[in-house]
Write a structure and sequence with these properties.
heterotrimer; B: alpha/beta; Rossmann fold; three-stranded antiparallel β-sheet; about 40% helix; C: alpha/beta; about 35% helix
Amino acid sequence: MTTQEPDRFDRVDWDEISRSRWFDPSINGVGVLATAIPLLLVALYDWLVLDERTPTLDPVGLGWDVGTVDYLFLFTLSLFAFYIVLPLFQHPRRTRYYWREFRRNRPAVVSLGWLGVVFVGGILGPFLVSAPEQSILTGYQPPVFLSIDESYVSTCVGDIVGGRCQGTWRHPLGTTAGGKDVFAGIVHGMTISMQIGFITTTIVASIGIAVGTVSAYAGGWVDEVLMRFVDVVLSFPTLLMFLLVLYIYGAGLGMFILVFSAFAWGGTARYVRSKSLSIAEAEFIKANRISGASTYRVVRRHVAPNAASSIITQLTLLIPGFLLAEAQLAFLGLGDSAIPSWGQLISAGRSDLSFAPWIVLAPGMVLFLTILAFNFLGDALLDALNPEAEAENA
Amino acid sequence: MTDEPVLSVRDLEKHYPIRKGIFNRQVGVARAVDGISFDIGPGETLGLVGESGCGKSTAASSIVRLEEPTAGEVVFNGNGRGGASRDPGGSHPNDVTRFSDAELKEFRRGVQMIFQDPSSSFDPRMTVGGAVAEPLAVHGMSDRRRRRAIVEDLLERVGLSAEDYDRYPHEFSGGQKQRIALARALVLNPDLIIADEPVSALDVSIQAEILSLVDDLQAEFGLSLLFISHDMSVIRRISDRVAVMYLGEIVEVGPTDGVFADPRHPYTEALLSSIPTPDPRSSLGGIELTGTVPSPTDPPSGCRFHTRCHRVIQPDGIDVDQSDWRGILNFRDRVADGRIDVESVRENAAGAAGTPTDEDIGDRLRAEFDIADEINDPDVESALQEAIDRLLAGDEEGAATLLSERFTTPCAATAPERTVHAEGHESSCLRHRSEHAVAADHADD
Amino acid sequence: MTSPPLLEVEGLTTTFDTDGGTLTAVDGVDFSVDEGETVCIVGESGSGKTVATESITRLVREPPGRVAGTVRFKGRDLLAMPDDELREIRGDEIAHVFQNPQESMNHCYTVGWQIAEALRVHRDVSDDEARARATDLLDRVGIANASARFDDYPHELSGGQKQRAMIAMALVGDPDLLIADEPTTALDVTVQAQILKLLDELQAEFGMGVLFVTHDLGVVAQIADRIVVMYAGKVMERGGVLDVFDHPAHPYTRRLLDCVPELGGDGGGIPGTLPDPRDPPDGCRFAPRCAHAEPACRTDGQPEEIDVRPGQRVSCVHYRDGRDPSVLGEDPAGAGSDSNEVTSGDD
């Protein structure tokens, strides 16, 4: 300390401090606001000023038309960046500790790597790889190093050797019947998968944590009403609801995400509630209340984060469910065929399985690996983030 | 003491409603804390001692309003609020139970707590520095660097180092965590710290260190301390005065030396004799308390301790051996509750030798309740024997009626008042009422 | 002593494989328990005393744990014994009572049923006999109205009653050795006094050897015949309870006794913390916290045990031949007898 008079707890003039109260926002909150507000302005501009056919970024010379799902995705990305990634840098000690714990689980580390690829591919891919386009002439091109009987393809991009069309690097994973590049389809599918993953998780987590903590903290009839509502949500036939919505309004990706996450938070809310009740019993909560902290502050700073860290696993395991649901619906032909999701790609190739299996297998493998990776990740996070286990090791 | 006490508790009560059924009807109350009063002077340590379930922790949380007390008054004269006098209406301006939200928040700076379990006293996701600094932030100190400087200084004062600021709770041992808890309690510079079993979870060697740290800090900053523990030897080491609590009431209060040297309440006496003396030559035992603490939902009438008291008073006209008297009363209560299973006693006796006679079973019953085979008072003996006979004949109700008519104790009828024994040494026991002085002396033999 | 002791532990070493390396919880510990005798293992938490007692009947989970050494019980080596034979002995000839009665009972079954079940495991008895015997045991450990309490679930009993029931369960096989691991630490003093008295009576009645683990010197003084002082996995000192209380030899024992003001100690505690069991100090385990440590204390492993008095042995370099143990300060014998006067005043 270079100051001549180091501050001491018994020399604080509390009367002075109590009088000078001002709002003290955290850097994380500022960051989220700083991205959310421009995003909201652009969205409003898009909605109110531009006509429907003009791409949002037309005024700056880009052709990207930002849709509702994209806005939501960007917003959740900023939440992710400021409330998950940034804190990792703010608390390097804790991060190192979690990493040490996490690293023990080898499959989980590989899974994290794979999900990193999917994440980066999903964000940057669409800017690097152009969207797959219909081209009937180059349908059924085989993947590189593989070949297909000449009779199936109208034009072979590569060489024809011995009556078989050889795969080329122009279409590393081949093409569909309509000539869409499977690789490009997978890359664009990553975006869709990431959108599904991030947006549903955000919706489920925010509703679940809000309802769970309010229920736990308010108690009484509020608790009763909320928990009965959770029962309703949990017993609601989501698929039927989705089909209904689909026949009335048509089913875009946004609708899928909305309907499915709107009925998926029940379990999370219940879990958060029971977790919050047990956290509320902990002595550090009493210590905080005795320091004069308001209920809001206690819930916001202690109960919610501690409950949240324990639902991360649950959320991680929720994402594969959504991805699978999307793929299944697409396979049954109930999805929006205009979106380049993995499920759509798989469903496009289902009739050609006998002679062009890559159309199904390539996105199928990617989907399988991604779901597996989320499961491994969930397991490892459970071990790494569990504070009770920490205490035993200490 | 001429000084005004820092904390003055009067007739504090905390009752929990007990609800049952689908309509949540209130069917009773658990009297966890039932009218306790005490004062803590500036720089003084009051030890509050009692078995688990006696309401000492509930008393603490009611005093600091972690829970709302049901009734009573808690006057806090710290935080520069001293010198206030009562309103004409009788209410005190410093009564914590009537504080507004703003006053309550200010009160929080004056009173802090330390808890028992070092493993759950800290948010596992927060650095200990952050945890200690949080009260500062709560009370509006927004300058991060200033908070950090204060906390680093404080961590050093409690025997840790400034570098520990960025470490997490799981990196510390139990004793270190209690040091940090002490730092967190001190950071707002309170006048009073309430320590709820702060060393119970620690090893003796660590206990001693924490206690001497508490002592040093108390002397340096002139803190008052309410120290709650079930461990008499810890209380003895740290307290200036002791209050002994039993089933929601304070049965004895006095200077530590006085209470330990000359306990005036039988419960205090029993507690003291239960401490294992660290002397291999002393024998095991002393006064053994029979039974367990009764439920606070339905506390015993009169003196609450009379159901377990080894000095329970004999009524006029009865003069038997004190341990027999205790046994007879225990027997009476068990018969009244219908909790004596004659059949099983008979079975057990049968296991020993052939078919047991009624006499064998009677002896067995007496042995179970530590009653002599033959009581020296013939009236008592005949009444007891008749009760046992009725019981064996299957007339439980008759036995119960006979016993409860014949054997009563003044302790169950009259709630004892406070008796002053010496300066500041008071206890609530009927034996100290003048008319029982003789009986008391007799029991002392 | 001519007859071999009931339990003889030699070179007991228990290690755990952890991510941070091998953790040695108990490191070459020897002790013995005779019939009808109470031996107390004393030490701070983390000193390895609990692991040592659990290693005796191989209750330590293996892996990650590993138990080595010899444990001779009535002449048979428990560590070399096949699992099924050991299971016969466990809970029958050797019984355990643990610290936390709440966690030691199965909350799905009635108390009596659990005791009867323990009986059925080891004895070929009918249900009725098992019930009668279990009721009898509950009665014996001082649970009032035993036949009614037989059908109570554990949550219906108080902490003290649960611990009594646990002791009843331990007595099922009429054990020769009772291993009690801090059985009274979780209880109120008044209840603790009852339980200690009960154990004392039962020991007299059944003639069991008792191995009692505790950190409470008050309890030790009340019940022990002999003491083994453990620190960081090693034995620091051992001896008869009177010898060790009157003439503690090892600096650690002395500091431990100093923590108890009733013994005339300063109550100052022991500065510092236990060493990391993954990387223990080279020399005497206590050297880093010892005020009298010198270079010889910091090398060559834990010092050998040296006889200071018949039956009392200490592992400290200051007692080697040609060394003067008085550098450790005076033999606090005087303090010991002083304290007798002080404490007897309390009674």
